[in-house]
Specification:
Chain B: InterPro entries: 4_helix_cytokine-like_core, IL-11, IL-11_fish, IL-11A_fish. The complex is a heterodimer of chains A (about 400) and B (about 200). By secondary structure, chain A is α+β, with helices and mostly antiparallel strands. Chain A is about 25% helix and about 35% strand. In chain A, the strands form 6 sheets. In chain A, strands 22-21-18-19-23 form a 5-stranded mixed β-sheet, with no helix packed on it. Chain B has one domain: Growth Hormone, Chain: A. Chains A and B meet through α5 of A and α1, α2 and α5 of B.
């Protein structure tokens, strides 16, 4: 047997077997499930060279380069990276002194999701969209799960992870309080953010749509403003909107304002020959605690004018002397038609009143004249009777 | 001449009366007579305003969601989409029952607030008065359209409120619920207006 063992053929076989075993061992090591470690940015990270306890000196490489961030290697072969930053992220490999690969580990650095900053928008009584921002950059994809307490039941809030928001439809709107829980999770961990919201206070319609400002022919001081309900708001009796219109000549800091429930309004006091800025916004008419929509886009329109006499250069050079003063506004009547009718009514009233006064005066004159005439007649009769009496024989 | 004088005076008097008549009837905007549904919606809005004032002036706004009142009208099953498909009689019946329930709750709150000498008492009294007025109006409308009346539910009210804080919190909870109820009821009344006009 010893002879057999010492034979060159046998030694060659043994060497071959041991070599193949060795290489297969190394192969097993590199084929094993990649070791990925998730660590928090700024923390101290310790990487071990596999499960080796042999206390052999090892050499660490990062992304196949011997250049590593600030580090220390322990006698056990552990790599210690203090207060890691983003540059420390990558594939780490440890080799023995003979250059054989012992272990590979991938280091991923980032943050565990923190408490989210959530805000919700309620464009009508059926829908809420809650959006959030993370407190810091996570550096790793984050997934979200959101639930919404709608009345007594919990319902999923449909998440759009890329846009970081979630939506709930068919709300039980007339509840004092609603609760939203958003759970954010990534490979570092998870966090749960809970907010309580009052939908009736968050209700904020979208701005009015199709806002138009038109001149009215033959009326150099009038502008017709019209708009329609925002498309996200139901056009139903149950959901009236209040509209707020503001306008001013370009260059002025003073807005004129009116409120109306109609979908059009005639500005009666435009400054003839000047460009006017006009905007409209909307709010739920019933719920005065709800919010005004954003203003519609600023529109610039000039009232009708006889173009032959107009001087456009003069227009553009006109400035109002109020630029340094704070923005103020004056409120006007609700309805243009009502305003017209009001003026007409006032005129009628004045005419009627003058007729009354005139009639009264004429009547008084007439009465006084009649009295005077009666008195004269009585005097005349007295005189006549006195003359008659004198002429009578005693 | 005396006859002439008398007749001229009476003519003047008649003329003045006629002018007065014209004067009083000449209104710039013709006034439409409010319908019963208008009265109901206006009264609901009035109540909503009173509730908001009470909340602003006297209630204690906390983020905690107390659940002291177990028998308030259920609002979680009322959605915005329902408002366009309301039926006249069942809705009036339901609103009447809901209002009666709120009336009980507010009378309880009034009693408790009086015990604690809460400054909101005068306004609460006014609110209960307005609520009763709305209930009467609604009942009249129900009779007109022959809407049935539900048997009033027995409210389950908190047994005892030992501290002023409890009164404030209960007040806040009740007013918050009632404000939202009024918001829904107002919308219901204005949605039902065409249907009520069709029935009458």
């Amino acid at each position: 047997m010893p002879g057999l063992l010492s034979s060159p053929v046998c030694l060659t076989v043994i060497w071959f077997l041991s070599w193949s075993l060795c290489s297969s061992r190394a192969q097993i090591r590199t084929d094993e499930v990649p070791d990925v470690q998730y660590k928090t940015l700024g923390s101290n990270v310790t990487l071990t060279c596999g499960k080796s306890q042999n206390r052999l000196p090892v050499v660490w490489h990062l992304n196949n380069s011997s250049v590593l961030p600030w580090h220390r290697v322990t006698p056990d072969g552990e790599l210690i990276l203090p207060q890691v930053d983003r540059s420390a992220q990558g594939d780490y490999s440890c080799y023995d002194t003979e250059g054989r690969l012992l272990h590979t580990v991938t280091l991923r650095l980032g943050h565990r999701p923190g408490l989210l900053s959530i805000s919700c928008r309620v464009p009508n009584h059926t829908h809420v969209r809650c959006s959030w921002v993370e407190p810091a950059k996570m550096y790793l994809p984050v997934s979200y799960n959101a639930t919404f307490k709608n009345g007594a039941e919990w319902r999923p809030c449909v998440v759009d992870a890329a846009r970081r928001h979630c939506d709930v439809d068919e709300l039980a709107f007339w509840q004092p309080m609603h609760t939203l829980i958003v759970t954010a999770f990534n490979d570092f961990g998870s966090s749960k953010t809970t907010i309580r919201i009052k939908l009736h206070e968050l209700l904020k319609p979208d701005p009015p749509e199709s806002v138009k400002v038109e001149e009215l022919e033959d009326f150099p001081q009038r502008l017709l403003v019209s708009w329609s309900f925002p498309s996200s708001w139901p056009v139903e009796d149950a959901f009236p909107l209040m509209f707020h219109i503001r306008y001013r000549p370009q260059g002025s800091v003073y807005w004129s304002e009116i409120y109306t429930e109609e979908s059009s309004f005639v500005i009666l006091d435009a400054l003839a020959g000047h460009l006017h800025q006009v905007q409209v916004r909307a709010r739920d008419e019933v719920n005065s605690e709800s919010r005004w929509s954003d203003w519609s886009q600023l529109l610039l329109v000039k009232p009708w004018e006889v173009y032959a006499t107009a001087d456009p250069t003069e227009e553009s050079e006109y400035f109002f002397p109020f630029d340094t003063k704070p923005e103020t506004s004056t409120e006007k009547s609700h309805n243009p038609i009502q305003g017209d009718e009001g003026n007409l009514g006032l005129v009628i009233l004045l005419v009627l009143f003058s007729v009354v006064i005139l009639t009264t005066i004429l009547s008084l004159i007439f009465v006084m004249w009649m009295r005077q005439r009666r008195r004269d007649q009585a005097t005349k009769q007295e005189l006549t009777s006195m003359v008659k009496m004198k002429s009578m024989p005693i | 001449p005396a006859v002439l004088l008398d007749s001229s005076s009476s003519l003047l008097f008649s003329l003045l009366l006629a002018q007065l008549q014209v004067f009083t009837s000449a209104s710039p905007v013709p006034q439409r007579r409010p319908t019963d549904m208008d009265k109901l919606s206006n009264q609901t809005k009035n109540l909503m305003k009173l509730t908001q004032e009470l909340l602003r002036e006297h209630a204690f706004d906390s983020d905690v969601e107390p659940h002291r009142f177990r028998s308030l009208p259920e609002m979680s099953n009322r959605s915005a989409n329902d408002l366009s498909n309301l039926e006249l009689k069942p809705t009036l019946t339901q609103l009447h029952a809901d209002l009666k329930l709120y009336e009980h709750h507010f009378e309880w709150l009034n009693r408790v607030s009086k015990k604690h000498h809460h400054p909101a008492v005068p306004k609460l009294v006014e609110m209960i008065k307005e609520m009763k007025s709305l209930i009467t109006l609604l009942h009249r409308q129900m009779l007109r359209v022959e809407a049935p009346r539900l048997t009033p539910a027995t409210p389950s009210l908190p047994p005892h409120l030992p501290y002023q804080f409890d009164v404030l919190q209960s007040s806040h909870e009740l007013l918050q619920h009632f404000k939202l109820f009024c918001d829904w009821a107002y919308r219901a009344f204005i949605s039902l207006k065409p249907k009520a006009s069709a029935v009458q």
